[in-house]
UniProtKB/TrEMBL annotation:
Subcellular locations according to the entry: Membrane
Segments crossing the lipid bilayer: 6-27, 34-56, 76-109
GO annotations of cellular component type: membrane
Organism: Archaeoglobus fulgidus
Top-level division of the source organism's lineage: Archaea
Keywords: Membrane, Transmembrane, Transmembrane helix
One GO MF term attached to the UniProt entry: protein C-terminal S-isoprenylcysteine carboxyl O-methyltransferase activity
Topology versus the membrane: Multi-pass membrane protein
Name this polypeptide is given: Isoprenylcysteine carboxylmethyltransferase family protein
Record Pfam families: ICMT (PF04140)
């Protein structure tokens, strides 16, 4: 890991902790319980996707099965869903701003990971990129 990657990870982790704290402090600040329920459901989907992707990735190498058959970045998508759930739970501008920054950082991390994967796996990864969407789970599910 380069120094730039380490700094990026540290910034991301710090913002993630802030996002969780904001969601606790400002929980349901707008009083919209239906958003809280939507946030809980979104959180559950995100957590399930994170765990499923983590388990699939343990096999090592170039993984294209399990959640990786649906989207190229299921762990990033899991984090995005968790971040969106925290925004829904807080219903506060600070949560929205922090969440938007986190999701933007995840987007750039996906682009960088794809660049590294093309270098590492070559044409096999380029073909995978043509077949499997980056994070659009609905598009990935339509294949089945």
């Amino acid at each position: 890991m380069t120094k730039g990657h380490a700094i990026g990870h540290a910034i991301f982790a710090t913002l993630y902790v802030i996002q969780v704290a904001v969601s606790v402090v400002f929980f349901n600040s707008a009083g919209l319980w239906w958003l809280v329920y939507a946030g809980c459901i979104t959180f559950a989907f995100g957590l399930i996707l994170l765990l499923w992707a983590s388990r699939a990735r343990r096999r090592g190498g170039f993984v294209t099965s399990g959640p990786y058959a649906l989207v190229r970045h299921p762990e990033f998508l899991g984090h995005i869903l968790v971040i969106v759930s925290l925004i829904l739970l807080a219903q506060h501008a600070m949560s929205l701003i922090t969440g938007a920054v986190l999701i933007t950082l995840l987007y750039f991390a996906m682009i960088e990971e794809e660049r590294r994967n093309v270098e590492k796996f070559g044409d096999a990864y380029l073909e995978y990129m043509k077949r499997v969407p980056r994070v659009n789970l609905l598009k990935g599910l339509r294949k089945f």
